[in-house]
Amino acid sequence: MFNEGTERPFTSELLTEKRKGFYHCANCGNKLFSSEAKFDSGTGWPSFSEALPGAFKTKVDYSFGMKRIEYHCAKCGVHHGHVFDDGPSSTGKRFCNNGLCLLFIPET
């Protein structure tokens, strides 16, 4: 989580999670995404159209020969993934998140 790595695609159990609730940082518990923002991007990683306000800090990442926006938990600094401008909703964003960095807490 702190080495800015990426898990293999299609390995996260959260890909098929459909219940209502919130996704939190697996390291510190910070609330990051609502289940209402989750969608199936077909990329193999949990994807969201928007994050909760103040959940992340971003930086530019030039690895893999391209410019990407990397995001980290605003509370503890854990790397969660990259955000792209090809999302399906009105935000146009796709937060492509490492499933290992997320903890899902269903609505009760």
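Next protein, fold it too.
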Amino acid sequence: MAESKFSKNLIKLRCGSCKRNNYWTRKNKKLVERKLEYSKFCNWCRKHTKHKEAKK
């Protein structure tokens, strides 16, 4: 089966405190060279924490 053009750009976001992968997002690797970092809600920590880009 052919790989989708969107699946190449998918990255995981990992919680900074509990280290669980909570979110998936897309990134344009040609325009954004740095690692993404967002403040998002973690269901396991039950609070807003920093979520950083993780390896696939």
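About the second fold: The radius of gyration is 12 Å.
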